[in-house]
Structure to design on (945 residues):
């Protein structure tokens, strides 16, 4: 009987423990690892209410000199001539610098390795920069303009042969040559004048890479540590499956001096585990990518801050202007009038997304809310009028087929496509059939512009400029709208109609304009025509989130310390984090 | 030497020696049996590899378009297709695939740095081994002793409790149990870490040779690292071990009960041998024979469980590698991992069969 009692008691204890695990976590008074006396006094254990239902994260740092950043992103390439992913760029921008950069927390440009913003020739084809003195790699090797130019030329020479091939998007179409007439001067000769070239130049593909590690004749996606650049940090060790250790570059002379003695970037395969890890204090920062549900839960944890960054990831409908019924402008306008973006973000994302009324998200040069101004959506009466102008009615509804990938953008895609279907059908004059297709089949069918009339896509900028939110959908770059038809030797193609021609002309003009005020105005005009044409239908954009405990701080010297100085360019400068 | 080569030597050489010993010292019948089993294993692996090849190709979706997304140009797509040999006729692809499997030339990954898949697996496999070995031991300890305890106390409270335990624990989804343990012991009590194989800071000082962190820490005399590895092992090992223990409890219980009714047990009991010695000294030994077969059969379930356990605990092993590569549609890596898993299960089954034939002389060769 003793054994029986033992087993019963043990099983009962286990069940109680398991059930208790499902409940809210304990307040700090119950936690065995109490906060050190030097911990920030935002939540003193003694003052914590013992019966509070709010879960609590650990209240004190465990390794005061080390900042541990968790992410579910994996490194695809550490070669700046090849890397083409947000997180790869983040690492590259932390270990090295370029001639220009963005002020932390903003998309405003400033000189970095260059002494100033450079000079532009009158024809807009030549950019000349002068290097600052005393720039050195992490191993002490001095940087000269000759070395810099040679390393940047890798973009033009071996770049297009590298697997991720950033060069074909961000270098080859724009840059003809990169030369160094002397040890201090770097000259970029462009293929065509480009107003947004400084924005491209501030990006990770244009940071300096170490010639000892990144040779002129080969891509090196997985260099062996240590990996040096001229930035605030260098990679001391790196295991692609577990973590990357960054240490301060002793020769760094720039403004972003590291606040911590080392930074560890820890890779997670499951965002849920990362969410638990930031609560338990295993990591100091949870950065990219947590689901809306996890964020909602973490917002309820005291001692944790969830910082939201109005980032650049947008979702939109591709509408093929050459396929029926989307070739009818009235049908496109009816769709634009009927869609209620607020309902989508509220019902599907619980407010974690933001309605988008132009392809250019707020905060970018010349961003407007053109779709809202033009259609005031949702406006079912207006939608009906557009449809009736084309002969549609309740008895003769327009039949729309809309495609989406059920897995690529997450399970929520099916949910918000259902919401859109319901909204369009609420007009009584549209009949929507939703069709799901596996991603790889879907994306080629949609972007080739021959099979699907309408479908869903997401977009994330290559460089933080309005042109990158408009040009790819208007010019014939394979996005499937077909508002311009491909033409050999032309970057823009043949516009579908007069309005499309106006739009192409405006964008071409804006792209080469170097005066930012004039550019902003041109983009505003372009967005008006874009919404009138309904080239695509912007729906919403997804904020990026960074989660951290109270002992982690951003720098108050720069913008948005509440998001650890991460701005709309989604660039996280590790140097600015302070722990303790 | 890569970690996988070291491991292959550590596991392969003793296994080969054992097989040679059995082959040389065993009877003619045993030799014939081993040869037959090896003869059956080879076509089994061939069939499995063929199935993996065919299934991945009839599934919808193109790996190249998937990897490149909407920004991929036709030139890039064509270039990668040529590099991967996807532009060749299916029969040529199949032949190349089989040869690559035989020569362990798995090619390069389509994503995540485009590294050689063999290198990636060689880093991941030791992590899985470090997880499944203690998990199997835990499952066996709980299962065998739990089963014997239940059999010894048949139709009593303890028997009922253990039977309920075995059913409940077997039915629990592994990710749910893992999550509960994380919430309880990781977040609430803070006894054990929630994720990873080693503390992030301590891990920076660990020199890896075999990539089995506990072994590497021991070899380098890095005791903080060793303790950290052990602490990180607890929750994933318990999760996987508990899930597997249920079936062992049931199997052992049934076999021990059956053995306790054998004539030799009745005779031993009549001679006054103590009940405890009878159960644990005599009955359990004989009841273990079918359990050995079960161990072989459980390897597949163990690996499947490891896939989920590794994902839940961000344990960078073969399981989480497979999940990551399926999500990224890295078909080259997926077919390699599945083939390796299949080969592993088949080879362990072969090993178990050989051991079974040694342990139980009644097996007819």
């Amino acid at each position: 009987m003793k054994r029986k009692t033992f087993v019963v008691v043990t099983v009962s204890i286990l069940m109680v423990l398991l059930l208790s695990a499902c409940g809210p976590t304990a307040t700090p008074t119950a936690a065995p690892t109490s906060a050190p006396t030097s911990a920030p006094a935002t939540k003193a254990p003694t003052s914590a209410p013992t019966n509070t239902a709010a879960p609590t994260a650990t209240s004190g740092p465990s390794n005061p000199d080390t900042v541990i950043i968790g992410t579910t992103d994996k490194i695809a390439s550490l070669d700046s001539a090849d890397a083409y992913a947000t997180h790869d760029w983040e690492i590259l921008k932390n270990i090295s610098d370029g001639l220009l950069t963005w002020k932390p927390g903003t998309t405003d440009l400033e000189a970095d390795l260059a002494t100033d913003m450079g000079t532009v020739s009158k024809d807009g084809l030549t950019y000349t920069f002068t290097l600052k003195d005393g720039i050195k790699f992490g191993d002490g090797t001095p940087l000269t303009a000759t070395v810099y130019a040679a390393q940047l030329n890798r973009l033009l020479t071996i770049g297009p042969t590298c697997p991720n091939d950033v060069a074909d998007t961000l270098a080859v179409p724009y840059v003809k040559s990169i030369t160094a007439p002397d040890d201090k001067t770097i000259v970029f000769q462009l293929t065509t004048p480009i107003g947004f070239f400084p924005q491209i130049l501030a990006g990770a593909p244009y940071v300096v890479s170490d010639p000892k590690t990144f040779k002129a004749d080969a891509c090196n996606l997985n260099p062996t540590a240590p990996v040096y650049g001229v930035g605030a940090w260098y990679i001391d060790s790196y295991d692609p499956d577990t973590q990357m250790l960054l240490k301060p570059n002793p020769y760094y002379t720039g403004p972003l001096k590291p606040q911590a003695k080392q930074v560890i970037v820890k890779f997670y395969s499951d965002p849920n585990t990362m969410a638990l890890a930031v609560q338990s204090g295993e990591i100091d920062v949870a950065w990219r990518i947590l689901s809306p549900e996890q964020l909602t839960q973490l917002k309820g944890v005291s001692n944790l801050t969830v910082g939201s960054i109005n980032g650049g990831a947008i979702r939109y409908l591709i509408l093929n202007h050459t396929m029926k019924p989307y070739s009818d402008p009235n049908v496109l306008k009816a769709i634009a009038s009927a869609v209620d973006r607020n309902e989508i973000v509220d019902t599907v994302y619980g407010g974690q997304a933001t309605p988008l009324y132009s392809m250019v998200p707020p905060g970018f040069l010349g961003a407007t809310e053109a779709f809202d101004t033009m259609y005031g959506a949702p406006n079912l009466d207006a939608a009906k009028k557009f449809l009736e102008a084309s002969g549609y009615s309740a008895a003769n509804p327009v039949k729309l087929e809309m495609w989406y990938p059920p897995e690529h953008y997450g399970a929520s895609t099916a949910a918000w496509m259902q919401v859109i279907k319901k909204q369009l059908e609420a007009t009584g004059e549209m009949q929507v059939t939703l069709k799901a297709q596996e991603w790889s089949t879907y994306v080629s069918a949609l972007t080739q512009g021959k099979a699907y009339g309408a479908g869903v896509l997401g977009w994330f900028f290559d460089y933080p400029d309005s042109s990158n939110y408009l040009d790819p959908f208007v010019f014939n770059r394979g996005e499937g709208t077909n508002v311009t038809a491909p033409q050999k030797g032309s970057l823009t193609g043949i516009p579908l109609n007069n309005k499309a021609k106006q739009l192409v002309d405006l964008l071409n003009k804006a792209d080469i304009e170097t005066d930012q005020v004039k550019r902003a105005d041109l983009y505003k005009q372009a967005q008006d025509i874009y919404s009138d044409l309904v080239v695509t239908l912007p729906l919403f954009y997804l904020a990026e989130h960074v989660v951290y405990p109270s002992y982690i701080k951003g720098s108050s010297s720069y913008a948005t310390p509440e998001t650890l100085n991460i701005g709309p360019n989604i660039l996280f400068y590790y140097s600015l984090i302070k722990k303790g | 030497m890569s970690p996988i080569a070291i491991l292959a030597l550590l596991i392969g050489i003793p296994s080969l020696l054992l097989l040679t010993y059995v082959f040389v010292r065993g009877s003619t019948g045993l030799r014939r049996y081993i040869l037959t089993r090896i003869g059956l294993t080879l076509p089994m692996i061939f069939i499995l590899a063929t199935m993996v090849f065919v299934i991945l190709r009839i599934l919808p979706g193109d790996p190249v378009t998937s990897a490149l997304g909407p920004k991929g140009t036709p030139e890039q797509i064509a270039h990668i297709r040529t590099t991967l040999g996807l532009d060749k006729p299916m029969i040529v692809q199949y032949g190349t695939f089989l040869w690559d499997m035989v020569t362990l030339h798995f090619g390069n990954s389509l994503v995540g740095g485009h590294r050689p898949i063999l290198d990636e697996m060689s880093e991941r496999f030791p992590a899985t081994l470090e997880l499944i070995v203690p998990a199997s031991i835990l499952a066996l300890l709980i299962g065998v002793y739990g089963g014997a305890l239940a059999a010894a106390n048949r139709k009593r409270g303890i028997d009922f409790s253990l039977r309920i335990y075995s059913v409940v624990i077997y039915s629990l989804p592994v990710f749910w149990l893992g999550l509960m343990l994380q919430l309880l012991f990781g977040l609430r009590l803070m006894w054990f870490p929630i994720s990873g194989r080693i503390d992030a800071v301590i891990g920076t000082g660990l020199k890896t040779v075999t990539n089995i962190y506990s072994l590497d820490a021991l070899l380098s005399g890095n005791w903080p690292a060793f303790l950290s590895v052990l602490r990180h092992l607890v929750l994933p090992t318990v999760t996987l071990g508990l899930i597997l223990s249920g079936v062992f409890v049931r199997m052992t219980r049934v076999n021990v009960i059956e053995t306790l009714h054998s004539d030799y047990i009745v005779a031993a009991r009549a001679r006054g041998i103590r009940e405890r010695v009878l159960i644990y000294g005599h009955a359990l030994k004989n009841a273990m024979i079918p359990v050995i077969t079960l161990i072989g059969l459980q390897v597949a379930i163990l690996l499947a469980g490891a896939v989920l356990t590794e994902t839940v605990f961000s344990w960078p092993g073969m399981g989480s590698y497979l999940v990551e590569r399926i999500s990224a549609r890295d078909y080259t890596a997926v077919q390699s991992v599945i083939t390796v898993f299949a080969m592993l299960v088949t080879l362990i089954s072969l090993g178990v069969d050989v051991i079974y034939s040694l342990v139980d002389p009644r097996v007819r060769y």
Summary: The CA atoms of residues 134 and 220 of chain B lie 21 Å apart. The mean pLDDT of chain B is 87. Chain B touches chain A through 61 residues (CB under 8 Å).
